[in-house]
Every structure is written in C-alpha cells, then in structure tokens.
Amino acid sequence: MDRLKIGLVRTPLYYFYLFLCELGAIARFTGTALKSAILPPYRRSITRRQMDAIGVGSLPIVTLTGLFMGLVLALQSIVELRNIGATAYIGRAIGTTVIRELGPVLSSMMVAARAGSAISAELASMTIGEQIDALRAEGSDPVEKLVEPRLIACLIMMPVLTLICDMVAFIGGWLVACTVIQISSFFYWDSVLEVLTPAFVWGGAIKALAFGFVIGVVSCYSGMKTSFGSSGVGEATTRAVVISSISILALDFLITKIFIVTWW
Amino acid sequence: MKENREAIIQLINATIGYGDLTVVNHVDMVVYQGETKVILGPSGVGKSTILKAILGLIKPTTGEIRIHRENIVPYQERELVRIRSQMAMVFQHGALFDSMTVGENVSYRLRELEMTTPDKIDQRVDEVLNFVGLRGARKLKPAQLSGGMRKRVAIARGLAPDPEVFLFDEPTVGLDPINHFNIEQLMLKLKKTQRATMLIVTHDVESALRLADSIVILHEGQFIFDGTPTALKENQDMRVKAFLDPEKFATARE
Ligand SMILES: Nc1ncnc2c1ncn2[C@@H]1O[C@H](COP(=O)(O)OP(=O)(O)O)[C@@H](O)[C@H]1O
Ligand SMILES: [Mg+2]
Fold it and tell me: What start and end residues bound the annotated signal peptide (chain B) (predicted)?
C-alpha cells in the first residue's frame, strides 16, 4: 500500500486515492456511529440536552425560514396561477412544494448552518484541547459519549423542526392568499389539507430524517477530524456546513427520484 | 540490580508517527516498577507522541509496546480500555472536560467504571483535591481556572482512581515560578507517598534532574542518552551537552 502511495504522489490518481480513503473513513465512522446509536447503552440525559440545543435552539431560525418561504411562495404562485386563471389552486401549489421539497430542504440547511456548525466547532475545540484523547485515556469511547447523543438528537429533532417549518409556511401562504387575492380561508386550508396525503407526508418526513442523519454525521466527523492549530476550529465548522448542505441537496435529488419512481 | 525489578512499560524497536510522518524511529526504552523516568527533549521532537502510543491512542508502525509484559499494539479499543485503567495521563494543558465541573472531571473514571459507591467517590474527590491544594475548587468550571490550577486538577483526576502508573506531559512547562514549584513538590510527594511508577515528559532540564531516577534524551527520533541523572551530567556526547547547556555550546562552537 505504501509503495502504491509513493508511486502515485501528485498525480490525479493520487488525489482520487486520497478521496477514496476519506470516503472509506467517513463510511467507517458512520458505521460505528450508527451502531452506537442503535445499541444500548443510551445516554438519555446527554441526548436530551443535545435535543434542547439542536431543536429548541434552531426553532427561531426555522420558524422565520418557514414564514418567509410561505410568503414568497404564495406571491410567486399567484403570478403563475393568474396566467392560467387558476389562483384557486394556490393552497395545493404551496402545500405540495412545501411538504415535499422546500420544507425539509430549507429547514435542514438552516439546522446545518446553526446546529451543525455548533456541533463541529464544539468537537473541534475538544479535539484540539486534547479532550477527545483524554476521554479515551479515561476509558471512554468518544463516539458513544459525544457522537451518539448528537446524532440521535439530530435524527429526532429534524423531522419535528421540518413539521414546524411546514406549518409556518402554510400560515405565511395563507396570509398572502387572504390579502392579495382575497381567497376564502376555508378554501385555502381545505386545498392545503387535500395534498397532505400519507405519501407526501411520509416523503417529507423521510427526507427530514435523512437530512438530520447527514447533518449529525458530517458535523461530528468534521469536528473530530480537525487538524491542529488555531485555524482548525474555523475550518472544521466551514467544512461541516458546506459538506452538509451539498450532501442534503444531492440526497434530496436521490430521494425524490426514488419516491417518484415508487410512490408519488 | 535493575534487572530484578519488573518492567512496567517497554518500548521495543518502536517506530511511531502520524500517517507519512515518522516521529520516533526504532527506539527502545524501559520503565521499571516504582521508578520515575523522565523523557527530555526539545519541543516537537515527539515526546507527547511516545506517551500517546503508550496509552494506545496511536499505534506504532513497527515494534512492540509492552505494558506489564503485554504487547498492546495489536489490541482493540476494548482491551486498551483495560490497559488504560491501570494508567493515568496528565495532558500538557490539562485537557479537562470543559462541559463538566472540577469535581465531575476528577471523579470521571470512578463514575464511568463504577469503581465504588457515590459516597466513597465524593470522599475520594475531596481527598485528591485536598492533595493538590484545591479544596474549594470542586464546583468551578475549567474555564474559571488558571493554567496552574488546571494542571493540578488534571493531576487530581489522574490520582483519583489510584493508578499504578502516571504519565505526565510537560507538567511544569509554561507555569509561573510558584506553580512550577508547587507542581514539582506535588510530584515528589506522589513519588514518596504513592510509590507510583512515573513517566514524565519535559524539556525542563533542571526539573528533570530533581525528579528523575533515570533519564532518556530524545533527539531527532532517537534516544541519544539513557541513564541516571549523575551519568547525564558526566556524559560527553556533543548532542547531549548541546541540549543541557545550549549557551555554552553556542559559544564553544564560535
Ligand atoms: N495529531 C498529529 N497529526 C500529525 N502530526 C502531529 C500530530 N501531533 C503531533 N504531530 C507532529 O509530530 C511531531 C512531534 O510532536 P509531539 O510529540 O507533540 O512533540 P513534543 O511533545 O516533543 O513537543 C511534531 O512534528 C508534530 O508536528
Ligand atoms: Mg508535547
């Protein structure tokens, strides 16, 4: 293996090799984190604290995101629907877009920016301060102690936050629908509820769950793989947000494709 | 005489590094039961790296590391936890857990390994905080402590489970003279009262001469000296002399 590495130094193949190594490392990390999250013991009190930090902490920003998303989406939909004389369908338009796409994607991007960055900054400063080494020296498993509670908290809170984001977006849409095109409230909510079919709701929930998983794994991995030096924390944080966001978008495409083929 | 004593820590032909970087190259070292051994060397030479390998935090690429005659190199994390439970490591900057109070830091291993009852743990925490002269600090968070206090809490954390082996990473470096003196006294006290086996890493020559039963000097990945403090003062190797007295060496070369 060493000779292979030396032979390839600085060729594109070498970087591809490094990329594969990194992918392998992430996959292994994901495996151990998942195993730890599924198997007991569960760190209930630490997990609860993380749920508070990630969930309650992200609530304001997710609510605001939902509100403006609903407002803008309604305005844009009205312009298009007017052209075809179908403004009555505004509830449907907003309902499907929000529940299937924008709700899960935008709220998880916000959680990645707020909570994911905080997770990776915290773990990165623990890595640099040798606290992770100290944890192992004291006989603990850092994955079990640090990664597992954060991952579980992300998994539980992301669907909840997405749900809240969706609700607020519907309300935003309703405000615009009532004031700009004077549609009746009953008609608006009726058509929103019409698209809340199990297939769509489950689709949104599964997306939220998957994105929460990505945020948890990427942020923890990035924090614990921090290089030493004062710029380490900043780099880890940036990396966590960028990689989470891009992974969320890519995964969104994949999941959407699967759902369209199978269910929607 | 040494041959009769039990070897607690042994490096045998060990090469240790990070990825492509080799830090120490094919080295041998022994720490005997009850002995205080000091690893001397300039910053960045690989002293901390050796301690981390002894704890099994990183793996050597060649050779063996034996703790109580067990080669720990092939061990998985689970077996390493058992090995580590016989040792205490005091990290360079303390490495206290920021999210916990001083008391929680000190009692960490006792609580995790459920070594005894909560009452006894409480009592033990008071005892060791007392030993390091920090009786009142129990409820404080690490962020509220000075550098010297952090190091003393780290020593208390190491002391609490009553381990057989102590690893100290630069225990006195970067401290003011008073804390420097206090921590050195603390280690002398440990040596006398606990009869612990200690491996101390430092670049402070004076401190090493005061504490050590035996000293090794690490230079460019190799041990260039291994012997008693007395033997060290009489050593004629130019590299050793240069490290012990850089000033004189610099003028002699001119
Ligand atoms: N986690 C790490 N990853 C890569 N290189 C490291 C790491 N830790 C230390 N090093 C490098 O290993 C060498 C020895 O470091 P260290 O053991 O900390 O030295 P010392 O403790 O003697 O000051 C240095 O060149 C340092 O840059
Ligand atoms: Mg060091």
Answer: none
Buried b (16+ CB within 10 A) or exposed e, B37-54: bbbbbeeebbbbbbbbbb
DSSP string over A159-189: HHHHHHHHHHHHHHHHHHHHHHS---HHHHH
Cα gap A217→A232, rounded to integer Å = 18
Closest chain B residue to the Cα of A143, Cα to Cα: B77
Domains of chain B, by residue range, sit at 1-77+202-254
Question: Quick check: CB of B41 below 6 Å from ligand 1?
Answer: yes
Q: What is the pLDDT of residues B221-253, one digit of tens each?
A: 999 999 999 999 888 888 888 888 877 766 655
CB contact under 8 A, B95 and A130: yes
Contact assignment for B91 to A130 by CB distance below 8 Å: yes
Indicate whether A7 and A83 sit together in one domain: no
Please count the structural domains in chain A.
Answer: 2
A29 & A89 share domain: no
- Report whether residue B43 contacts ligand 1, using a CB cutoff of 6 Å: yes
The pLDDT tens digits of the residues spanning A227-238 come to 766 678 999 999
Same domain, A151 and A214: yes
Model-wide pTM > 0.90: no
- Contacts with A, B 55-94, CB within 8 Å: 55, 57, 77, 81, 84-85, 87, 89, 91-93
From the candidate CATH numbers 3.40.50.300, 1.10.10.10, 3.30.565.10, 1.25.40.10, the one assigned to the domain spanning B1-77+202-254: 3.40.50.300
Q: How do residues B16-72 score in pLDDT, each as one tens digit?
A: 999 889 999 999 999 999 999 999 999 999 999 999 999 999 999 999 999 999 999
- Complex ipTM over 0.85: yes
